[in-house]
Amino acid sequence: MTERVLIKDLPALPDGPVSVSGWVETVRDQKKVQFVVLRDESGAVQLVNPRTTDSDGAVVADEPATTISALTQGSFVTATGQLKHDERVKLGGIEVKLDSLTVATLANPETPIAVDSGIDKRMDWRFLDLRVPRNALIFRIQTTLENAFRRYWIERDYVEIHTPKLMGSPSESNAELFRLDYFDTTAYLAQSPQHFKQMAMSAGFGKIFDIGPVFRADPSFTSRHATEFTGVDAEISWVESHDDVMRMQEELLVAGISAVAEKHGAEIKQLFDVDMVVPTLPFPRIPLNEAKEIVAARGHVVDRNDDDMDPEGERQIAAYVAETYGHEFVFLTDYPVSIRPFYHMHSDENPALTKSYDLIYRGTEITTGAQREHRIDILEAQAVEKGLDLAELATYLDFFRYGVPPHGGFGMGLARVLMLLLHQGNLREVTYLFRGPTRLTP
């Protein structure tokens, strides 16, 4: 039996016997010849079967002609035959003249989605939607991006950890929590790995990263929110300020985007019409108050009662940075204490501000990062100021009672990075199986 060959590898092979397997994309069942476009995970190829006729010119019902005539779009088959290079063939300059065709599974003849189906309908039938080369490419890009992140960290002696997602107390606050029965008590789905990342600093790990699921009971129906997503987190010891964290993150993103551009740049241009732009270092840095002034000068005034930057403000500061620095990223720094978690370190120069930042990419926030407060007395005082119960935080606070180095880190949504990298308008397009307030299937 001839070993299966991926379609992408066919052009490099000499003419001769081959075997390919995949799903049927199209069938042209003509009187004299049959054509099948077969697609696998790597590409598509044309299969050709000249029809047999009798002495009177009538078509003979033989194999594999009979099997081809019964094929439906999406059926999975294995084809064996003779590879032939022919520059006249529009699909890759090659074709396979069939010897045999074996059907693994026959698809229903009526396809439930079409190219122009709406996004909700496509999400209902996501496994079919992902057969589209453009959509499948997203997850090859995701694989390359994650691998590049890991390579950056591992080459610098970071430790990968896998933090638990079942927690006995809230990981950050009582908001946006999923509660569930856990034997005779209540458990919570982790909003972030924050507490456990910091525990690793107390454990003396030095530098860690964690890529895993994050859960947010947020009833948002925006194009950039999900109730479950993949978080990319890192934490490092012996930082002097949040500047050290920003430097690490910008290097990480350059490593990731460079790998994507090198491996997938041509395909991304072909299927998404997007040029992969590898950002230069360092990324621009603008204090939040200064950013608000820049945005106001551009005609958008952020509500004076809002200590944060609103979505339109993020878009405007990104436009300013693109025009001024030719850059798609910008760090907004020095966020006020009022909108930051209790564990963010306060500024030495201005106690009303934190040593923290948000990273804006093409007008959308993808990251919050900060230097953490590592001194137990100050940490407890800041928790009380936020109205938190120290008893509920007891396990977390214990991490700081036996020594912990100055440290900081960030959390970043993987799907948001992919969405913006590929210029997509909705998180659902770049999430394998999206979860939102009204979607729990498939």
Task: Write the topology of this structure.
Elements: E1 16-29, E2 33-40, E3 43-50, H1 65-69, E4 76-85, E5 94-105, H2 119-124, H3 126-129, H4 133-155, E6 159-160, E7 166-167, E8 179-182, E9 185-189, H5 194-202, E10 207-215, E11 228-237, H6 242-272, E12 285-287, H7 288-297, H8 311-325, E13 329-333, E14 356-361, E15 364-371, H9 376-385, H10 394-398, E16 407-413, H11 414-421
Helix pairs in contact: 4-6, 7-8
Task: Please provide a written account of the structure.
The protein is α+β, with helices and mostly antiparallel strands. The chain folds into 2 domains: 7-105, Nucleic acid-binding proteins (OB fold (Dihydrolipoamide Acetyltransferase, E2P)); 126-430, 2-Layer Sandwich (BirA Bifunctional Protein, domain 2). The protein is 29% helix and 26% strand. The chain has helices at 65-69, 119-124, 126-129, 133-155, 194-202, 242-272, 288-297, 311-325, 376-385, 394-398, 414-421; strands at residues 16-29, 33-40, 43-50, 76-85, 94-105, 159-160, 166-167, 179-182, 185-189, 207-215, 228-237, 285-287, 329-333, 356-361, 364-371, 407-413. The strands form 3 sheets. It has an 8-stranded mixed sheet with strand order 6-10-11-16-15-14-13-12, sandwiched between helices. The longest helix has 31 residues, at 242-272. The radius of gyration is 27 Å and the shape is elongated. The mean pLDDT is 95.
